[in-house]
TrEMBL record:
It comes from the Eukaryota. Residues 28-54 form the Essential protein Yae1 N-terminal domain. Residues 23-44 are annotated as: Disordered. It comes from Rhodnius prolixus (Triatomid bug). The lineage of its organism: Eukaryota, Metazoa, Ecdysozoa, Arthropoda, Hexapoda. Residues 27-37 have a biased composition (Basic and acidic residues). This is Essential protein Yae1 N-terminal domain-containing protein.
Length: 100
């Protein structure tokens, strides 16, 4: 039987350690990467939802105001115009926010 010297034993133990730790490190990296990605997406979704809700609320309020004034015959359709598309309302809301 051959006897290994200390340096060979050290080399084998280092390789064994590296081979057993590498998959754990890779799994940890993947999990951390996915967790960070999910957190970033959630924050973006939350911010977008809040902005979209505020914009939609303002547009709905203006359209409701127009409908009430029109039914009460207090407007001639040139004073308050309803939003025909969300894009028109969004531009109008942005302009009014930039003025203030």
């Amino acid at each position: 039987m051959l006897k290994m010297c200390d340096s060979e034993e050290l080399l084998i133990s280092e390789r064994t350690w590296r081979n057993s730790v590498q998959p754990i490190e890779q799994d940890g990296y993947r999990e951390g990467h996915e967790s960070g990605r999910q957190e970033s997406f959630q924050k973006g979704f939350d911010d977008g939802y809040k902005d979209g809700y505020e914009c939609a609320f303002q547009m709905a309020y203006k359209n409701a105001e127009h409908n009430v004034l029109q039914k009460l015959r207090l407007t001639n359709d040139t004073e308050v115009n309803p939003y025909k598309t969300p894009w028109m309302g969004n531009c109008d809301i942005c302009r009014s926010q930039n003025k203030s």
